[in-house]
Amino acid sequence: MIVHSPDPIVLVGAGDVSADDIKVARRYGSKVVAADGGASHCVAAGIVPDAVIGDLDSLPGAVREVVPEDRIHRIPEQETTDFDKCLRSVAAPLVLAVGFAGPRLDHMLAAFNALVRRADTPAVVVGPSDLVFHAPPRLALDLAAGERLSLFPLASVSGRSRGLLWPIDGLALAPSRRIGTSNVATGPVVMEFDAPGMLVITPRAALPAVMRGLSG
Of the chain's two ends, which shows fewer C-beta atoms within 10 Å, N or C? Predict the structure, then answer.
């Protein structure tokens, strides 16, 4: 492990991210880790990251001059993404990841893949309007009635739910078959899944509820 924290870690990627995105995430976590070129966003926001992790193929020289050398950690293998490298290199109760929800669709899909591959490190991808995270075996979310909640399986998964307008009990969900987008909470939601591989998507405003749910 490169970074250890008893509190959530903010992870900054090189995709679309604003200073406000980083500010929102830092309300919940003080340590900041940059995934390779994400260090540029940190420096632009006046933050020197606690660590920069990745293959470093997109880390500008000007940023290297700002970040102390002992905080820069190169992992040269090309089999995994910088997001994956970061998730497997930190120890924290939760990772709040900004800069991974666009603009490139292939990068975003790769981030979703890493959420499932590295499910032992709970992480929430914070996008401009939505949150995406991998569901634990049991998840309780204190959502308001009418709140949107989507389920997108990256593997064959079934489960049970309470508090959804359209329950998932008895449904076989899979990426090439039935999915569960645009469901609606009728109040607090409890879901249980029989296997890993389920992504949950909620509005960004649900971040406090999601963090409580993932820490419960």
Answer: N
Q: Cα–Cα distance between 215 and 41 in angstroms, integer?
A: 28
CA distances from 149 to 42, 46, 110, 132, 185 (A): 31, 34, 22, 10, 7
Longest CA pairwise span in the chain (Å) = 56
Indicate the CATH number for domain 7-128. 3.40.50.10240
- Whose structure tokens read 């998507």? 201
- Its CATH architecture, for the domain 138-215, is Sandwich (2.60)
Whether the pLDDT of residue 30 is over 90: the answer is no
Backbone φ, ψ for residue 133 (5° rounding)? -155, 160
Hey, what are 138's tokens? Answer: 């049991």
With 0.70 as the threshold, say if the pTM is over it: yes
Distance CA 137, CA 50 (A): 32
Enumerate the β-bridge partners of residue 160.
192
Domain ranges within the chain, ordered by starting residue: 7-128, 138-215
Q: d(Cα 41, Cα 205) in Å, to the nearest integer?
A: 23
Residue with the two structure tokens 């593997």? 155
**% of the chain beyond a pLDDT of 90:** 94
